[in-house]
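Write out structure tokens for Sulfotransferase.
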Amino acid sequence: MITKLSPAQAFERAVQLLDTQPAGALSQAEAILTQVRGFPPAEFLACQALRRLDKPKAALPRLAALARSQPRALAVIWELAQAASEAGDAGQAIAALESLTRQQPNVATGWFLLARELRKAGRVQDAWRADLSGVHASSRDPELLAAAVAMNENRLDDSEAILKARLGRLPDDPATCRLLGEIIWRRGDMTEALALVERAVDLAPGYDLARDFLIRLLLQSNRLSEALEHAEILTGSPLNNPGHDGLMASVLVRLGDQDRAREIYERLLAQQPEQPQIWQNLGHVLKTLGRQADAIHAYRQAVTHQPTMGEAWWSLANLKTVKLGADDIAAMQAALESLEQGEATSQEDVFHLHFSLGKALEDAKDYPASFRHYELGNRLRRPMVLHDAEGFSAEVAAATNVFTSAFLAGMGEGGCRAPDPIFIVGLPRSGSTLVEQILASHSQVEGTMELAEMMIIASRLQSRVDEGEFPDFGAMANALTPADRLRLGEEYIERTRVHRHTDKPLFIDKMPNNWQHVGLIRLILPNAKIIDARRHPMACCFSGWKQHFARGQAFSYDLVDIGRYYRDYVTHMAAFDRAAPGAVHRVIYEQMVADTPGEVRRLLDHVGVPFEDACLEFWRTRRAVRTASSEQVRQPIFTDAVEHWRMFAPWLGQLEATLGDLVPHYPDMA
């Protein structure tokens, strides 16, 4: 005996079939409608089944009729919006979603789908606003709030678990992708973090916070062209956020387009002049462009608006040709006292002020007080940076042992034959900016900046050892085929192309730390020129120790650390000289000062370009210079810095002991 199902039972059975057997659900729903004509739940179920059967056009008129009869039935409106979207009827989808978001403004999914439909219809600004409304709605989501709280409390495992479970249910949720991307970034996995944040931006192109974060990740990854593309998009946001313009300026600075960055900062200050951070940023750009008087004005505006702004004071002091006077010293001491008495002291402001006072008191010839402030600044800064002197020495020794003459000969021909790059290596404060400015004054040589590309390539190769693919660096280097070396060399040339703004055949990479990678350079760019800029070990190390660097150079905040670093550098370069005689041209700073014409001719001969008088008048060359010596190279060579370190000799015993026999044997260290 066959039991006939009641309409209620049939409906319950159809609901059970919807997800797994939509055809069966549709059949049951249609059967119910023959018994109970116009029954809304059955009609809605039939439309759901049609959409799951990829028949949105068939479902659309029935859903529209249901929505007209039940204008507050949100599930019907949502189904109508999705069916219209799948059927390609953007107008009907938009109308449904606008109704839905009016009634449920705190449901982010509706806003994000509305944004996609508006974008399809060419209504870009309206779509952007819808995405922003979706982000605002997401900020009230209890699950996302719980994940954010866990992240901010550094409970990364808890936060990640919440977000991954949510992403399993909602794979297309932009806010979940962005927040999970931040968790992964905090864990140190840049590749996965970038993928997640890029997905958030793909899903919701108007998600400004995600695009802002993506730009910062791209900058950290040195993917500058992509960062610029996203920054240009972000500046079109309907929110008109000045922070977007500031981020664009930061990207332009990294790309070396100082003039465009200057225009942005000046425009922002014209709108709101009392912004110390923008004044400081403008000062950096003006300094790089060689507009010293304007840079000084900008930095002084910054400290006028915020007297405790240590970085702005240091930026003033760091203009090596500027001397801070008694009034400035008093103002900095007052700022330091104010910071040290405050409850929420900014350690960065404090150590910047110590470095600044060290420079001001050095100029005032109060060397004991100057050294005391330099020491305090370094003592505060050292715990903030990671530098394992023992581990670093071991890494350098390993590289030294790999790149022997036998190894280089055994590797044979290979690499990219492009002659374009000129690498200037050594320690900071060694005269490398002077060498760069001399070369960049030549008609065939373009000066760029300190480029990170070679270090990125070297780090990627080292990661293959760290991840266990090779037992050590030597095995990895030995495994590089001619094709691998060609590819890596071409990658370097391609990645640095964004920094080249002229058609000059040669360009300079002035990243000093590339001395660690001279062997790799030889393997992948055999025709590249390498210049080693060297300065007396006491003068160079002391100058580096009293210099606060904007980034990198973690070895420079302790006199013993910097002395060890200098020893590692000299040892490695001497070994490479033996392995590849003549591959490196050494410029001794003191010899360049004593015989500039002769040293310049020898330098140009090594690079392979004819002598030009402009190289002797390098200070007349107008170009952006982004190092601590930017102002010094805009004037003729002066000699008073050669022996200046001796004024501080009574306090440099640790450094001298660490350097050992390098001091009396300079410059014949090899």
